Amino acid sequence: MVKKTTPRSFKHLWSILCRVASVDKESNSLSLFNVIEEITINKAEGPEKEEKAIDVEKTALIVPIEFVIVTYLERLDDKDRGSMTKEAQIEIVDPAMHSLLKREFEITFPQGPKRLRHLLKMNGLKITTGGTYKFYISTRESREDIFESVAEIPIDVKIGHLSLRQGNSQI
Fold first, then answer.
1. Pairing, β 10-23 against β 61-75
2. How far apart are CA 51 and CA 24, in angstroms?
3. Is the pLDDT of residue 43 over 80?
4. Strands 30-35 and 38-45
5. How far apart (Å, rounded) are the C-alpha atoms in residues 56 and 70?
6. Cα(62)–Cα(64) distance, integer angstroms
7. What are 151's strand-pairing partners?
8. Residue 8 in 3-state DSSP?
9. What 3-state DSSP class applies to 150?
10. To the nearest whole number, what is the mean pLDDT of the chain?
């Protein structure tokens, strides 16, 4: 079966990664808190410089972090603004270009509005090494279409060291 590309009924305006996003119920204003551009992860080492945590160079760590990917989209169908649901995908890729997560989700435009803010909440981030991780957002018009990348969000991950010495714990 040949995959096709259907003309777009919406376009991507912007996407951002943050710790918390909030929509005010009265004004419908969006507030973004703690935009994430960089994450520092500390590896523990003991008194003999022996590693106490998983070696992130060989095995992935799951960092317990909650974050939100906020995406702003605009409809291109000015004549009919009925409800519209489209498919999307998030893929997280490490610095070595290994895919760490690929997850599909739906984006639903309600009837009427021309623009939509979509909030995708996620828990945990798989880390394999230090470097720049990329969050790719892709969309497609229907199941017969292929996913097309519409956004790339880079996040720098730095690996540090946390010293855990007997009688003198620093956490």
1. antiparallel
2. 46
3. no
4. unpaired
5. 28
6. 6
7. 137
8. coil
9. strand
10. 84
Q: Cα–Cα distance between 74 and 64 in angstroms, integer?
A: 33
Strands (E), the chain: 10-23, 30-35, 38-45, 61-75, 84-93, 99-109, 115-127, 131-140, 148-165, 168-169
Length, in residues, of the chain:
171
DSSP 110: P
pLDDT tens track for 88-135: 999 999 999 999 999 999 999 988 888 999 999 999 999 999 999 999
- Confidence band of 5 (pLDDT split at 50, 70, 90): low
Q: Count the Cβ atoms, other than its own, within 10 Å of residue 54.
A: 14
Task: Tell me how far apart the alpha carbons of residues 100 and 18 are, in angstroms, rounded to a whole number.
Answer: 19
In one-letter notation, the amino acid at residue 86 is K
Q: Is the pLDDT of residue 72 over 80?
A: yes
Q: Which pLDDT does position 39 carry in this prediction?
A: 93
pLDDT of residue 37: 95
Structure tokens at 159: 């690996």
Q: What is the pLDDT of residue 45?
A: 59
